[in-house]
Design goal:
The chain is α/β, with parallel strands linked by helices and about 475 residues long. It contains 15 helices and 20 strands. The strands form five sheets. The protein has a seven-stranded mixed β-sheet with strand order 10-13-14-9-8-15-16, with helices on both faces. The chain has a six-stranded mixed β-sheet with strand order 5-4-3-6-7-18, sandwiched between helices. It binds nicotinamide-adenine-dinucleotide.
Length: about 475
């Protein structure tokens, strides 16, 4: 049975929080006992669990599409392309490569240790906690889970309460596939997350905002629990004067308005060379209209803002900006609809240029000197993603070299996320650690360094009393270490 506990408002619920806390400690205790049986360390077991998970997702695919439609208004094609399909790809990649990844990795041993062998052994941490966000609620809970299982851990999931339909279908899948002593799921909001975080886990994988990331990191520090923090921030997008402006606009419009701008690595704002700004805005308008029609509210491909709170936050960002709305700007709170919106030249001190937008609003700021524009970005927290549209390899290199970011993409947006051969994560305030493909397996594994010494020979050099002088020892270090 999977734990299914809904959080209630704080005031009336002290006993319920206690119930949740008890259910959580029971679940952790059961998982600790199961982990101690060593069953999860068996590679065949892990692969079988991943295969079962894949099959159950396939069986629930229509329900997942329906849930994503209800939570975020996502079209099923988008739900496959940006959620379910990515989970299948990760599962397949992992099932194919796991035996290889999990093998002990032999490394060389300095002569000084003669005679010995050294290797790195990947061991599971134990019981891991995965806390997910609402924007890609299926994918961002399931991708870490794939890695947690692949590495041989037990896992507890806490998906976001704001995408409640997706959380419910995820729970049904988890319930169907796994015994709770191996993998279980708690539904609920911050209070449930806080109740979970009071416990000692062996690893915590959190995806969400930078502010909550700090709360999670503090809670983890209490137990010295290692973490992956996949956080957010403002991801800048440079469009240089040498860029292919038409294709840049197409790719920016796609990445920005995907999931109604509620994508952690969406281009947050554009810094464009003044000579191509007007053309870029004109082309953006064209592609937004091509993608979503004259009235995006009627488009099956355009979803909705997750809730009223975010709607109002976004409305305030637009209303308080000194920039000019040159496209869109339609808001309807009853349908949580905000049309794709372009804001020309906001002030860098406007709220819209200070906080992560996380919605379908695209500020465009022109520059005439790339170095000055880059300085503006460098003064800010390190972004999760960085985009540069340019035909000049020199400018591409300069931007990548000078601006630190979690990931980057040249002449496209968002695409770098979907490559299992590269780790994905933030840096500085946009996150700690990374995952995807092999790096998800590595994130959930402790790489134990092992040296195995021969019993046949035992050189006397290190033993006391010292039989050589310091000069000889220095020489030996140079030659043998
Ligand atoms: P959030 O931080 O509000 O919530 C994330 C999770 O934390 C949810 O499960 C929520 O229930 C829980 N939570 C909320 N408040 C909490 C608290 N006080 N204590 C403990 N847990 C708490 O984030 P969100 O609104 O779900 O997601 C949006 C943010 O996530 C954006 O900043 C976005 O950039 C970021 N994000 C990052 C990535 C990435 O891969 N780096 C992916 C998606 C979203």
């Amino acid at each position: 049975m999977t734990m299914m506990i809904q959080a209630e408002p704080q005031t009336a619920i002290v006993p319920q929080i206690q119930d949740i806390s008890h259910a959580i400690s029971d679940a952790i205790q059961q998982q600790r006992a199961f982990f101690a049986t060593n069953q999860t360390k068996n590679i065949d077991f892990r692969i079988a669990q991943l295969q079962k998970l894949r099959k159950a997702i396939e069986e629930h695919e229509p329900e997942i599409f329906e849930a994503l439609q209800q939570d975020l208004g996502k079209h099923y094609m988008e739900s496959f392309g940006t959620e379910v399909g990515l989970v299948y790809a990760e599962l397949d990649h992992c099932i194919t490569n796991l035996r290889q990844w999990a093998k002990d990795k032999k490394v060389s041993t300095p002569m000084f240790h003669f005679k010995a062998e050294s290797f790195v052994q990947y061991e599971p941490y134990g019981i891991v906690l995965i806390i997910g966000p609402w924007n890609y609620p299926f994918q961002l809970s399931l991708l870490p889970l794939v890695g947690a299982i692949a590495a041989g851990n037990c896992a507890i999931l806490k998906p976001s309460e704001l995408a409640s339909h997706t959380a419910a279908v995820t729970r049904r899948i988890i319930e169907k596939v796994f015994t709770p002593k191996f993998v279980t799921l708690f539904e609920g909001g911050p209070d449930v997350a806080q109740a979970l975080l009071k416990n000692k886990f062996d690893y915590i994988f959190f995806t969400g905002s930078t502010s909550v990331g700090k709360i999670v990191y503090k809670a983890a520090a209490e137990h010295l629990t290692p973490v992956t923090l996949e956080l957010g921030g403002k991801s800048p997008c440079f469009v240089d004067k040498t860029a292919d402006v038409d294709l840049s606009a197409k790719r920016i419009a796609w990445g920005k308005f995907l999931n109604v701008g509620q994508t952690c690595i969406a281009p947050d704002y554009i810094l464009v060379h003044e000579s191509v700004k007007d053309l870029l805005i004109e082309r953006l308008k064209k592609y937004i209209t091509d993608f979503y029609g004259q009235n995006p509210r009627q488009s099956a491909y355009y979803g909705k803002i997750i809730n009223e709170r975010n709607f109002k936050r976004l409305q305030h960002l637009v209303n308080s900006s000194s920039g000019k709305v040159v496209f869109g700007g339609d808001f309807s709170i009853t349908s949580l609809y905000i049309s794709p919106t372009i804001i020309d030249n906001p002030d860098m001190n406007d709220a819209i240029m200070q906080e992560e937008i996380f919605g379908p609003i695209l500020p465009i700021i022109s520059y005439n000197n790339l170095a000055t524009a880059m300085e503006e970005v460098k003064m800010r927290p390190k972004p999760l993603a960085l985009y540069v549209f340019s035909r000049s390899s020199e400018i591409q290199r300069k931007v990548l070299q000078e601006i630190s970011s979690g990931s980057a993409c040249i002449n496209d947006t968002v695409a770098q996320f979907a490559n299992s051969n590269m780790s994905f994560g933030g840096v500085g305030e946009s996150g700690i650690g990374g995952y995807h493909g092999k790096s998800t397996f590595e994130a959930f594994s402790h790489a134990k360094s092992v040296m195995s010494k021969s019993l046949i020979i035992d050189p006397p050099l290190r033993y006391l009393p010292f039989k050589m002088n310091l000069a000889t020892l220095k020489l030996l270090f140079k030659k043998l270490v």
